[in-house]
Amino acid sequence: MALIEVQGLCKRFGELVAVDDVSFAVRPGEVVAFLGPNGAGKSTTMKMVTGYLTPDAGTARVAGLDVSTHTIAAQRELGYLPEGAPAYGEMTPASFLRFCASVRGLAGEERERAIAKAIARTNLEGVLRQPIETLSKGFKRRVGLAQAILHSPDVLIMDEPTDGLDPNQKLEVRNLIKAMAREESGKSREGKAIILSTHILEEVEAVCTRAIVIRKGRLVADATPQQLLERSKYHQAVSVSVRASAGTNVEVELASIQGVASVARAGNEGVRHEGRFTLFPMTTNANAQGGGGSTQLAQRAMQVCTSRGWHVEGLAIESGRLEDVFADLTRESN
């Protein structure tokens, strides 16, 4: 059974259609990225799924409960980290989490264990007695995350969970999200259902099992990260970084290799003898048209570089670039 079920959600603000007939489901153990440009309707959709906005049409269910008709019961099943991680600034993280635990119906030893676990998982030990308003953006975000996971919910919905964190903290939170997705929940032994909105596309590959992309309130993609990468023009392209002698037109020589459809160069346009060159194959099918696949293309590129005496600094077959796919899916001309 899906722990999150969204069917035909719509929301208008006057003449603005913020969310337009969005449908998807999230099953136990899935971590789903919710992607889209600013103003696409991501936060509005999440607010409807969590019961903080009433949809104009459609339904959202959390753990089988209709969020519109059983709002409080559905909200008991989920943890929500909203945009900006709002909290009471005059409280300390310790007092805020104690307050949140009480609101969640936790008391006594159960409350203290839940608070201690949330603090440990979000590494808040060093700031527990400081007023929240004095904390850095990253620590405020971690306080928000701690309250979201405090009651070990079956469903987690998080808006930019790593916003404001440094690289080490981002890695810690990503590992925590993956671990929580695998944890046995009250509704399923297969894990929790997690949605996270993010602008950091590397998180999609690092953490998520699926990605949903919306543009102008409409769903334009629902696929695994691998399926999205396969839509990239860079999927199976060969990238090579070389340095040749001055006067050498590396791009022209690489373009003459059998099986190369085109070559793109990154770097100073006035310098033709060095840089990173991307070779786009005529086909990714190793048996089609006799051109060979990307592995053969990489071998041919290396042979050309070696025979010309060029210094090869790197050579790789690309899996694809999510930023390229994201741009294609969300550009204004679509």
H/I helix tally: 11
Topology, number of strands: 14
Kindly state the percentage of residues in helix: 25-40%
Largest sheet: 6 strands, mixed
Indicate the radius of gyration in whole angstroms: 24 Å
Would you kindly provide a written description of the structure presented here, covering whatever features stand out?
The chain is an alpha/beta fold and 334 residues long. Helices cover 33% and strands 26% of the residues. It has helices spanning 42-49, 71-76, 93-103, 108-122, 137-149, 167-182, 201-207, 225-229, 250-255, 294-308, 322-330, and strands at 4-13, 16-26, 31-35, 57-62, 65-66, 78-81, 155-159, 193-197, 210-215, 218-223, 238-243, 260-266, 274-281, 311-317. The strands form three sheets. Strands 6-7-8-3-9-10 form a six-stranded mixed beta sheet, with helices on both faces. The longest helix is centred in the middle third of the chain and has 16 residues, at 167-182. The chain is elongated, with a radius of gyration of 24 Å. 41% of the residues are buried. Residues 285-291 have low confidence and may be disordered.
Outline the secondary-structure elements.
Layout: E1 4-13, E2 16-26, E3 31-35, H1 42-49, E4 57-62, E5 65-66, H2 71-76, E6 78-81, H3 93-103, H4 108-122, H5 137-149, E7 155-159, H6 167-182, E8 193-197, H7 201-207, E9 210-215, E10 218-223, H8 225-229, E11 238-243, H9 250-255, E12 260-266, E13 274-281, H10 294-308, E14 311-317, H11 322-330
Parallel strand pairs: 3-8, 3-9, 6-7, 7-8
Antiparallel strand pairs: 1-2, 1-4, 4-5, 9-10, 11-13, 11-14, 12-13
Helix pairs in contact: 3-4, 4-5
